Amino acid sequence: MRCPDCESERLHKNGVRQLQSGESVQYYHCLDCSKRFNERAGTPMHRMQTSTQAIATVLRARG
Ligand SMILES: [Zn+2]
Predict the structure, then answer these.
(1) Span 20-26, mean pLDDT?
(2) Ligand 1 centre and the CA of 7: distance in Å?
(3) How much distance in Å is there from the Cα of 38 to the middle of ligand 1?
(4) 12 alpha carbon to ligand 1 midpoint, in Å?
(5) Rounded to two decimals, what is the model's pTM?
(6) What ranges do the domains of the chain cover?
């Protein structure tokens, strides 16, 4: 896991949040640039400008 902003690996875990879908998402705090983000930041799924419906389809496909 790297910071999506500065690519630092010096991350501090900043809690886990549960989504309405029941999934848990780990949140991080970058120690180098102080950005806060979750584990989905910087992934291809995050960068794709897709609709919520398309993301839901991807999630189902991943099982
Ligand atoms: Zn950073």
Answers:
(1) 93
(2) 6
(3) 12
(4) 11
(5) 0.61
(6) 11-62
